[in-house]
Specification:
Blueprint lengths: L1 H4 L21 H12 L3 H14 L3 H25 L6 H6 L4 H33 L3 H9 L14 H16 L1 H29 L9 H11 L17 H13 L18 H30 L10 H8 L5 H33 L18 H17 L6 H22 L15 H7 L9 H43 L1 H5 L3 H22 L17 H14 L4 H25 L27
Helix pairs in contact: 2-9, 2-12, 2-14, 3-11, 3-12, 4-11, 4-12, 4-16, 4-21, 6-8, 6-14, 6-15, 6-16, 6-22, 8-14, 8-15, 9-12, 9-14, 13-14, 14-15, 16-18, 16-21, 17-18, 18-20, 18-21
């Protein structure tokens, strides 16, 4: 049946034929890639914006909670990295668990996220450099080559951003080890400069700035003779905007940790992926947390939070404490952060495209690997050219929120996949339904004549297999229902929280019932037997942690605007045209609907060969 094609899955235990990608990346390379992708220029700006307008000094709590929420997603990626050392990240993880259609949706949105991320970071790099030299580039181009199409095209064609993306595209095409070396250099310089900022803040900081009172506000207002530049000051103390400010600050800070998942796309290029991927994911998130926590602490200690200059908080802070030359150090760090972030966005983009093309869901030519450099050269060149053109011509501010949808969707899919897959019986064979895998293997093996104790053992084994199969089916259905219930709960919390807090009987009753059912289904899943396969890393406290991760991601997705969702719908329509017009007919997993030609040949494996240029 046609609908069965939408849920066909890749065998989790399949050992793909040699892909042609170079296995050259060490754990240090992966950590540098993850930190560089995550710790972008936002660390130089975001802390000031959130501290001044949203959370005050309590921004440090926001970063702590955001890091803990991110670590939940990181744990899920780490387990899959230890279980499936292949390129593709969340796309591949979805493919082996929930089927082809959802895998395509996840991969298609990851492509959008990384393309927009690459183009926007390139324009930010160009703007930062232009600002350092007095905005001469933008003034010259805007005067001569102005593009008068508001909300669609940029104010002027950005030749600098175009050249930068094409330059890094060439670097990525040269080889994974070469791009990893450049990433390590930029990331190392960035970490050194951030460490200098943190140390400076603790040396020149004043703990009194974390416990400001009304007298401090009055003195500031008297000195400025105006309140217009200060905005709402809050109520003073360490938490001037209350608990609500911490929550809103946490939601903003969460997106500062986006980027670590690029590590999961290096499965075929890491030397020891089963170990290095989970280790580097956890280390990257922890290092980024230390930097964000330290910079936000230093900034709010150096000056009162309400006096922070949002557009360039750190240079202004150093100017206030009398260390004006330090602002040039901050500028260098910002450019290094943008450079490593740009590479961190482009690297996973090419690997996701390569993995989808290799599976036949995108055009097969994009899976070509260069024989000498051992990189996915066609995926690199095509994605680099598209991102360069977007950075060159388009206004990206209205599209940046689309990256949030792709990221949160991938986090949710991976969390759901870990939750379901841990309770499945035999993940080495897939016949369209993971819970049928063990039954297929059991029924396909000829049974010799048995007698006495052997017959009894066979019956006992068959009974256990059937029980485990039923258990896997229970988990799959329960987890699917839980996702729907969590979506309803998030909808209530985002749209009708006021009515719920006011004690409205309808919303209160519905919320209580939802919590009871969610708790009951969680207990049911937790009582099922888990897959005992030994892995280097496994998510602890199943099924609670993946469910909390899904809840967090869905809640944040519902905070996005209707315009963002409308643009997401347009992008998905384009994707479905490609999938139903090409991918569904060229998918290599269609061979899984046929029996294997020999016992030594894994289903869907014989055609998985890389095309060498």
């Amino acid at each position: 049946m046609q609908w069965q094609k939408l849920i066909r899955r890749r065998p989790l235990g399949t050992n793909k034929t040699k892909s042609g990608l170079a296995s050259c990346l060490t754990t240090l390379d992966l950590v540098a890639l993850g930190v560089g992708s995550t710790l972008g220029a936002g660390v130089y700006v975001l802390a000031g914006e959130v501290a001044r307008e949203i959370a005050g000094p309590a921004i440090v709590i926001g970063f702590l909670v955001a890091a803990l929420c991110t670590m939940l997603a990181g744990f899920c990626f780490a387990e899959f990295g230890a279980r499936v050392p292949c390129s593709g990240s969340a796309y591949l993880y979805s493919y082996v668990t929930v089927g082809e259609l959802w895998a395509f949706v996840t991969g298609w949105n990851l492509i959008l996220s990384h393309i927009i991320g690459t183009a926007s970071v390139a324009r930010a790099w160009s703007a930062t450099f232009d600002g350092l030299i007095g905005n001469h580039i933008s003034q010259a181009l805007q005067g001569r080559l102005s593009l008068n199409v508001p909300h669609f095209l940029a104010k002027y064609p950005d030749f600098f951003a175009l050249s930068l993306v094409l330059l890094l595209t060439g670097l990525l095409a040269l080889g994974a080890s070469e791009s990893a070396m450049v990433t390590k250099v930029f990331t190392g310089v960035n970490l050194l400069i951030l460490s200098f900022i943190i140390l400076s803040g603790f040396i020149k900081g004043d703990l009194h700035n974390w416990k400001l009172g009304e007298l401090d506000y009055n003195q500031s207002l008297t000195g400025l003779n105006t309140t217009s530049s200060l905005g709402p000051l809050g109520s003073g103390g360490f938490v001037p905007f209350g608990f609500d400010g911490i929550l809103r600050g946490t939601a903003t800070c969460f997106f500062a940790f986006v980027g670590f998942d690029c590590i999961a796309t290096t499965g075929e290029e890491a030397r020891n992926p089963h170990r290095s991927i989970p280790v580097s994911i956890v280390l990257s998130i922890f290092i980024c947390f230390l930097m964000y926590f330290g910079v936000s602490s230093a900034l709010t200690l150096m000056m009162p939070y309400y006096q922070i200059y949002s557009e360039s908080p750190l240079p202004d802070a150093f100017l206030r404490i009398g260390w004006a030359p330090a602002r040039y150090v901050v500028a260098i760090g910002s450019l290094c952060a943008l450079s490593s972030s740009l590479l961190g966005a482009m690297f996973p983009l090419t690997r996701v495209i390569y993995s989808m093309a290799e599976d036949g869901l995108l055009f097969r030519g994009l899976a070509r690997i260069h024989a000498r450099t051992q990189t996915p050269v066609m995926a690199t060149l095509v994605s680099g050219i598209i991102a360069a053109l977007m950075a060159f011509l388009f206004e990206l501010s209205d599209l940046v929120d689309l990256t949030s949808i792709g990221t949160l969707l991938s986090y949710s899919m991976v969390a759901f996949s870990v939750l379901v897959l841990r309770y499945q019986p035999d993940h080495k064979v897939s016949k369209g339904d993971p819970v049928a895998a063990g039954m297929f293997e059991m029924s396909s093996v000829p049974k010799p004549l048995e007698s006495g104790a052997e017959t009894e053992r066979s019956r006992s084994c068959s009974t256990n297999i059937v029980c485990v199969l039923k258990s896997g089916h229970i988990v799959y259905i329960s987890a699917s229902v839980l996702v729907i219930l969590l979506m309803v709960l998030c909808l209530i919390l985002t749209q009708w929280l006021g009515r719920l807090l006011s004690g409205d009987p309808v919303y209160t009753t519905v919320t209580v019932l939802l919590l009871v059912v969610i708790t009951g289904l969680t207990v049911i899943i937790g009582r099922q037997p888990q897959d005992p396969t030994a892995l280097y890393f496994k998510v602890p406290a199943l099924p609670v942690l993946p469910l909390v991760s899904i809840f967090t991601n869905v809640y944040l997705m519902m905070q996005l605007t209707s315009g963002t969702w409308a643009r997401f719908g347009v992008w998905m329509m384009i994707g479905f045209v490609i999938y139903f017009g090409y991918g569904i007919r060229h998918s290599l997993e269609k061979s899984s609907q046929q029996p294997p030609t020999s016992s030594s040949q894994t289903i869907g494996e014989k055609n998985r060969k890389a095309e060498l240029v």
